[in-house]
Write a sequence for this structure.
């Protein structure tokens, strides 16, 4: 018996017939479409928005902070790449933790990650509101939020082809403008601006360098890299699941390269923040100083496009996480959360739910929402690294050679440890709100399982089975949770 619409994938007992008839996600995304979605999620122009804050905090070492953050994220990206090959399914950290450790723990990780994924589309809606209120102050901000959310929801309902093509155009426009900034900055440096030369080491090291300040700055910029992990949500829509590990690493390295180069030249041109009137968002003034008013307007249009691209990608990602949790029966009603539109092959109900949550951006401040995002991301990063150890070491005993120990023990432990360093710098408000959110999720899990006395549906629809390139070294997937359609908490 095979899953409807997924040749060769076994259908699990207990699958919902209504859900099965609703269709499957469509495999339509190539490597560069997925990388483009990841870059759109990362919003490369954010390096200019946060430049003033990071430069002041690191004493003029913005590119070094990005370099440290890139190294931290690289270990976690490698872990994502390993797990996406084993579990070629949407769901990311939620799926990996559920399959390698325990379904209940997987739910809690997924619930925490929802905090990050749900709030980012709201942040993008809020930024659009701020932009439009500044441009057209006579129009109430809520109107812009509603219009923006309607557009985002409609595009995501149509399918990932439409979303990825529009995202690709916006990201290309954004990168071209960043390249123009780089060229203009080089010209201005040659004319004596800032350090007066491109060949300076000051943005990376200078007298009075404080490692603690750079680590704090790395914590701030680290979350600019969120996007390499979010693309794992598109695994079931990739034309070939084998491209996912490459897409993860390429997204991280390309995004990190843009952040580093742009940050280096920006820091060389603006050694300190004394010349800025608004330090909290330096993008408009930086564009003005290097390229004049015409370039400032064009660059701000690029920032607008970047926010729009991030909105598309983040909306698509969270709707897929909600869908997978619904398909697994842990978000109810499962027939709605696990529903795929038969024509568009998109999780239409969760796309609409994401839009409704994003409308809440009519009220709060950007600072309030932004401070809450980091909690879910750090939970996801930590458990993806631990999932590598749980799967390869504890389940499949891959620790009998130096190479295995390096790949499956040392590397993920470094990734988890470096993520732990970021935990120590987590904003107090984010920690409090994150713990409260997790408490709500735990209460919901207690209710769902009747105090852990009840078996709940493991799947509503079949999803791609786990696989491992090593072949005969590994036993059949999901051996630990072998009861069809159910798991025991």
């Amino acid at each position: 018996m095979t899953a409807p619409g997924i040749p060769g994938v076994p259908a699990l007992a207990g699958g919902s017939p209504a859900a099965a008839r609703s269709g499957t996600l469509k495999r339509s995304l190539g490597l560069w479409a997925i990388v483009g979605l990841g870059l759109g999620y990362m919003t490369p122009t954010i390096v200019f928005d946060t430049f003033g804050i990071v430069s002041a905090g690191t004493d003029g070492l913005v590119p070094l902070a990005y370099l440290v953050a890139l190294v931290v994220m690289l270990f976690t990206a490698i872990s994502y790449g390993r797990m996406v090959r084993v579990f070629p399914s949407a769901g990311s950290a939620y799926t990996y933790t559920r399959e390698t450790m325990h379904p209940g723990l997987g739910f809690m990780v997924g619930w925490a990650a929802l905090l990050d994924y749900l709030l980012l589309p709201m942040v993008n809606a809020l930024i659009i509101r701020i932009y439009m209120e500044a441009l057209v102050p006579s129009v109430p901000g809520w109107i812009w939020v509603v219009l923006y959310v309607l557009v985002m929801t409609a595009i995501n309902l149509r399918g990932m082809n439409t979303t990825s093509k529009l995202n690709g155009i916006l990201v290309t426009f954004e990168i071209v403008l960043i390249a123009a900034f780089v060229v203009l900055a080089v010209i201005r440096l040659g004319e004596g601006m800032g350090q007066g030369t491109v060949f300076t080491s000051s943005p990376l090291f200078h007298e009075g360098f404080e490692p603690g300040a750079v680590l704090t700055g790395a914590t701030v910029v680290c979350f600019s890299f969120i996007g390499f992990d979010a693309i794992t949500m598109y695994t079931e829509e990739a034309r070939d699941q084998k491209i996912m590990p490459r897409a993860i690493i390429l997204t991280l390295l390309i995004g990190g390269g843009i952040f580093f180069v742009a940050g280096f030249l920006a820091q060389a041109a603006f050694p300190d923040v004394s010349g800025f009137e608004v330090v909290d968002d330096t993008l408009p003034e930086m564009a003005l100083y290097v390229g004049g008013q015409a370039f400032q307007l064009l660059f701000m249009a690029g920032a607008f496009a970047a926010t729009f691209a991030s909105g598309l990608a983040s909306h698509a990602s969270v709707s897929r996480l909600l869908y997978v949790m619904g398909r697994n029966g842990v978000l109810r009603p499962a027939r709605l959360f696990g529903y795929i539109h038969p024509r568009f092959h998109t999780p239409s109900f969760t796309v609409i739910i994401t839009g409704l949550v994003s409308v809440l951006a009519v009220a709060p401040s950007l600072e309030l929402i932004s401070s809450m995002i980091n909690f879910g991301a750090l939970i996801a990063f930590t458990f993806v690294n631990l999932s590598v150890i749980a799967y390869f070491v504890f389940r499949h005993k891959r620790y009998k050679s130096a190479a295995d120990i390096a790949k499956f023990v040392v590397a993920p432990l470094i990734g988890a440890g470096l993520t732990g360093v970021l935990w120590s710098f987590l904003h107090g408000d984010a920690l409090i709100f994150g713990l409260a959110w997790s408490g709500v999720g735990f209460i919901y899990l207690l209710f769902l399982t009747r105090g852990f006395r009840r078996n709940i549906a493991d799947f509503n629809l079949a999803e791609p089975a786990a696989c491992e390139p090593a072949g005969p070294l590994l036993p059949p997937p999901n051996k630990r949770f072998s009861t069809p359609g159910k798991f025991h908490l």
In short: The longest strand covers residues 456-457. The CA atoms of residues 42 and 226 lie 6 Å apart. The domain at 27-365 is CATH 1.20.1740.10 (Amino acid/polyamine transporter I).
